[in-house]
């Protein structure tokens, strides 16, 4: 069955500055929280950068962006999602004036995208809080970060607003519930962080997101600004109504972020959660007014689904899943324990469209795997049929959701080029259509090679989904 996507559908890939740029101390850049996370979320942060942190060099996009963007153009990308490293623009995060060298770097990236006719989709904060703001201010638990972030966003809108239509405020904003240091720059260990402090930090991010949404509309007329959440459909483990309720309550943890971004106020179920858990946060009248600045679209990452149950004996969480959840016995899992559920993507698309009636954008989806570089007819490549199958099956379900009437702007696969994993800081967890010769021990030439999926994705884009099977 042939699936044809709408005219103007945006096809491309998604990245984050901290996972591919490298050059962590070049161009006047300050340290970010990622520079002290050599093993991702698997170990506590270090005092400063250490040689085992692959993110310090990344895949050297900082120096190789023109080569990489040319490869994206060869596949036919019409959109490229990347983030602006906050600490490149404001090295400490609390300066009053931006760093010109940092601004100029992203000018050059935008020049290259424009040369190839690729639309930029920019994330303002992608797990890249300046380390100074984390260590000296306590991260997003401190209300002062709202103003610092607003200043950063203003600098970006004033510099790039006429060149960029699509913006995202915070990457996977709901992940702060589970990884407060990576997502919110909060240095307090998770086991010591009170729920009140956590949700105060969340509130500050939500207010900042809403203020920046208003600012984008003022400084960059015609721009579209969206929120970005982790989408993870949660099914009841059994038909027991108590399992269905447990699944609904787990979904609320994620819905809350989209509800506030799209509706402009705190939902009743979240206020009840605060009451039931003794959570008290400061919400000013000005905050409530700010929150009414709702987003233009909703973007999300989708990698897996989970189950929930009310039975404590069955509540073992899945391997590799930072968001919790019980493994689904009907699904297979990736090498990192993420359950593979293409139909879940169709469910999410319908669910979000029905709930918020705002355009949607899939800004992350892909398969992390241990690829093997081989030589075929004298050319080095990766025979990644497993990635092709994964993405084909998910995109077929996207096509079904479009037939269901969902308004979808585009699709950017996660990691169109191999990059350093956020959760594990490995390079062996590869997502790309382009293989990068770099290993977990830091060895390798950084040379780029087209995988089999490179040609496959190019065919999908050129046929506007018509080549999917």
Automatic annotation (TrEMBL):
InterPro entries on file: GH, GH_1_N_CS, Glyco_hydro_1, Glyco_hydro_1_AS
Active-site residues per Swiss-Prot or TrEMBL entry: 364
Keyword Transmembrane helix part of the UniProt annotation: no
Keyword annotations: Glycosidase, Hydrolase
Residue ranges that the Swiss-Prot or TrEMBL entry lists as coiled coil: none
Gene3D superfamilies, per database record: Glycosidases
GO molecular function, one term: hydrolase activity
Listed Pfam families: Glyco_hydro_1 (PF00232)
Family statement drawn from the similarity comment of this UniProt entry: Belongs to the glycosyl hydrolase 1 family.
Protein name: Glycoside hydrolase family 1 protein
